[in-house]
UniProtKB/TrEMBL annotation:
<comment type="function">
    <text>Microtubule inner protein (MIP) part of the dynein-decorated doublet microtubules (DMTs) in cilia and flagellar axoneme. Forms filamentous polymers in the walls of ciliary and flagellar microtubules.</text>
</comment>
<dbReference type="InterPro" id="IPR048256">
    <property type="entry name" value="Tektin-like"/>
</dbReference>
<keyword id="KW-0966">Cell projection</keyword>
<keyword id="KW-0175">Coiled coil</keyword>
<dbReference type="GO" id="GO:0060294">
    <property type="term" value="P:cilium movement involved in cell motility"/>
</dbReference>
<dbReference type="GO" id="GO:0015630">
    <property type="term" value="C:microtubule cytoskeleton"/>
</dbReference>
<feature type="coiled-coil region">
    <location>
        <begin position="354"/>
        <end position="381"/>
    </location>
</feature>
<keyword id="KW-0282">Flagellum</keyword>
<comment type="subunit">
    <text>Microtubule inner protein component of sperm flagellar doublet microtubules.</text>
</comment>
<dbReference type="Pfam" id="PF03148">
    <property type="entry name" value="Tektin"/>
</dbReference>
<keyword id="KW-0206">Cytoskeleton</keyword>
<protein>
    <recommendedName>
        <fullName>Tektin</fullName>
    </recommendedName>
</protein>
<keyword id="KW-0963">Cytoplasm</keyword>
<dbReference type="GO" id="GO:0005930">
    <property type="term" value="C:axoneme"/>
</dbReference>
<dbReference type="GO" id="GO:0060271">
    <property type="term" value="P:cilium assembly"/>
</dbReference>
<comment type="similarity">
    <text>Belongs to the tektin family.</text>
</comment>
<keyword id="KW-0969">Cilium</keyword>
């Protein structure tokens, strides 16, 4: 009954002691775990700090390496840009030379064509397909060929300039991007843990679809450099070709121009010689005409001089025919008169020499007219070749293009 009346909240001293011991053990255990946790936390903090510092240092090195890579490629691109710009400027100079050469070919071509046109005005036998005409036709053909060649080369040059400018544009765009990237990485390199006003960047860790691999990045700039080198080499080769073409065309033009001029000089000399010979023949014909005219006059005078004796002889015969009867005798007088009349009549009737002389005179007149016409033909030819053509060709001067 007494046990039933005890307070149920009372514990046994042993329980109290046990409880205290448990509290101590539990506290010491908790303290031990806490100490371990603190130690682990410090270890973790130290480890994270070291890892963070190592990672940041590694990133800083990679940023520096990246900056050096960008600087290297930027320098490469700058060098290629400078080269392609210089080469384009030099090629533009070659283009100007081509244009001047092309323009310089037009006047000689027009003059050669005018010479051919003027020489169509030659007349008669002088309208001949002579050496001058052959050389002029060759010169026209050569000049037309040169103009076609220069025109084609000019088209090639314009296309090469376009290609050079395309390569220059690619280099400039790449350099612009490199400059922007270097500026950004320079900013990143300057950032430190103590940089003020830094903020968290949302969605910073992401890879967008327009990211390229390092290999693609190198390949992109390398392609631009190779294209610039290729177009520069093409431009160098084209300039060498242009120099050769301009030198050869100038030599060809001078050569054919001189050949035409020599042909003109030779032809003018030939025509002058022919004209001189014709003038000599004309002088000879005119002298012969004067002699023949004198001869005809002498023949006519000789015939006229025989009219008196003929009349006397015929009058005597007429009178003696009226002698009467036996007096109408065929005596020596009658015989002599008959002979005289026959002789004079025969001599008067021999006018074939006069007719032949007159025929020869007409022939000489025709020959004189023919020679005079031929001399005029030669004078016309000389005027065309020596005055119109050769004087016009004096203005042709072919410089080195």
């Amino acid at each position: 009954m007494a046990r039933l009346l005890q307070d149920p909240s009372k514990f046994h001293p042993s329980e109290w002691a046990t409880a205290n011991m448990m509290q101590r053990v539990s506290t010491e255990s908790q303290k031990s775990r806490s100490e371990c946790m603190i130690a682990e936390s410090w270890r973790l903090v130290d480890e994270i700090e070291k890892t963070t510092q190592k990672t940041q240092s590694d990133v800083n090195k990679k940023i520096e390496q990246r900056r050096e890579e960008i600087k290297f490629w930027k320098q490469e691109l700058d060098n290629k840009l400078e080269q392609i710009v210089h080469e384009t400027e030099v090629l533009l100079t070659s283009k100007n030379r081509l244009e001047r050469a092309l323009e310089s070919c037009k006047e000689p071509l027009v003059i050669a064509q005018k010479c051919l046109l003027y020489r169509q005005r030659r007349v008669g036998i002088d309208l001949v397909h002579d050496e001058v005409e052959q050389e002029l036709e060759k010169e026209v053909e050569v000049l037309q060929g040169i103009i076609a060649l220069l025109g084609h080369t000019l088209e090639q040059t314009n296309e090469q300039i376009r290609q050079n400018r395309s390569a220059k544009y690619n280099l400039e765009m790449d350099l612009k991007d490199k400059f922007t990237a270097l500026t950004i990485d320079d900013y990143c390199a300057r950032l430190t843990n103590d940089t003020p006003d830094m903020m968290y960047a949302d969605n910073a860790v992401k890879i967008e679809g327009n990211f390229v691999s390092p290999k693609d990045w190198v390949d992109f700039s390398n392609i631009n450099v190779e294209k610039a080198d290729k177009q520069r080499n093409n431009s160098l080769a084209l300039r060498a070709l242009i120099d050769g073409i301009l030198s050869q065309t100038a030599n060809d033009m001078r050569k054919h121009c001189e050949m035409v001029n020599v042909a003109f000089r030779n032809r003018v000399k030939e025509v002058k010689d022919a004209k001189h010979k014709l003038e000599t023949l004309l002088a000879m014909v005119m002298d012969e005409t004067a002699s023949q005219e004198k001869n005809i006059a002498a023949l006519k005078k000789a015939i006229a001089d025989k009219e008196g004796p003929a009349k006397v002889a015929q009058s005597r015969l007429e009178a003696r025919s009226h002698r009467p009867n036996v007096e109408l005798c065929y005596d020596r007088v009658q015989c002599s008169l008959m002979s005289e009349v026959q002789e004079i009549t025969k001599n008067i009737q021999r006018q074939d020499a006069l007719a032949q002389a007159e025929t020869e005179l007409k022939g000489l007149s025709r020959r004189q007219l023919s020679l005079e016409e031929e001399i005029k033909v030669k004078e016309n030819t000389l005027y065309i070749d020596e005055v119109l053509c050769m004087q016009m060709r004096e203005s042709v001067y072919i410089n080195n293009f």
